[in-house]
Design a protein that fits this description.
alpha/beta; Rossmann fold; 11 helices
């Protein structure tokens, strides 16, 4: 759902209450005793972890640096402290994964050390960590992906940050997540920080990885893509934007589809 930015605040205040109630109801329906969420210092994980805290259920917020850029790591710690100070039901864990990651790299054949694949490995090691914690405290792993990432361009790691039990903000555009962060009084430093997946030692941002497109541009491209295509229906600028959007989206469609299964003929 897209909302004009000036009309967002009132709607997202109710939205935050609705999402919190949805998380809590799901947990009650499935006899879940705790919520586990990885926090990166970005707006998405900060909003989701805060919504989890609002349920009053036991929440495990987990910082998992792996050769992390210092600025990103600091924001994750700051948010963890903010959560733990504000909510008595939140436990902030710091789990250092550098040694585990380095051991993995040392074990791999040299020809298998592709940098993009290694970035995805970092995400998958974090997923394993979250599920170890969830399995030990009768909890579930709560996802932090938004609609643009999960269903627009597929900007996540398959079986990494895409490996979760529930996804509270996967139907929300990035602009809505930012507004939720403001409504929830998330640290301003996190709201202002350039979005990043935190998987690169050079600190590259999401924009750097998404063909230079901002989330506002990606949201507009999603709207164009959802429109009935017409040969003359878009400006040259919109056509160029849509082309860049599809260049990112199309290679990632496999993430958004069920695993292919060979069906035997009967």
């Amino acid at each position: 759902m897209w909302l004009p930015k000036e009309d967002m605040s009132l709607s997202t205040i109710q939205l935050s209450k609705d999402i919190t109630a949805w998380i809590k109801q799901y947990a009650q329906d499935h006899n879940i005793q705790s919520l586990v969420v990885g926090i990166s210092g970005g707006i998405d994980s900060s909003v989701v972890s805060t919504l989890c805290a609002e349920t009053q259920m036991p929440v495990h917020a987990v910082t998992m640096p792996i050769q992390q850029h210092n600025d990103q790591h600091t924001l994750s710690i700051d948010h963890g402290h903010w959560l733990a100070e504000r909510y008595s039901n939140v436990t902030h864990h710091m789990i250092l994964l550098d040694r585990l990651y380095n051991t993995f790299v040392d074990l791999m054949p040299k020809q298998c050390l592709n940098q993009h694949a290694l970035a995805n490995t970092k995400s998958r090691l974090r997923m394993v960590t979250l599920y170890q914690l969830a399995g030990s405290c009768k909890g579930i792993v709560v996802g932090t992906g938004n609609k643009v990432e999960d269903f627009g361009v597929g900007f996540y790691t398959k079986y990494g940050d895409g490996g979760v039990d529930i996804s509270p903000i996967a139907d929300l555009l990035k602009s809505e997540v930012w507004q939720l962060g403001k409504d929830l009084n998330i640290l301003q430093s996190i709201i202002d920080a350039p979005p990043t997946d935190g998987l690169w030692e050079d600190g590259r941002t999401d924009k750097d990885q998404l063909h230079g497109l901002t989330y506002d541009q990606l949201e507009h491209a999603m709207t164009l893509h959802d429109d009935i295509p017409t040969e003359y229906g878009h400006s040259l600028e919109d056509k160029d934007l849509l082309s860049k959007y599809l260049q990112i989206r199309n290679p990632n469609l496999h993430k958004m589809s069920p695993i292919p299964i060979y069906q035997r003929h009967k």
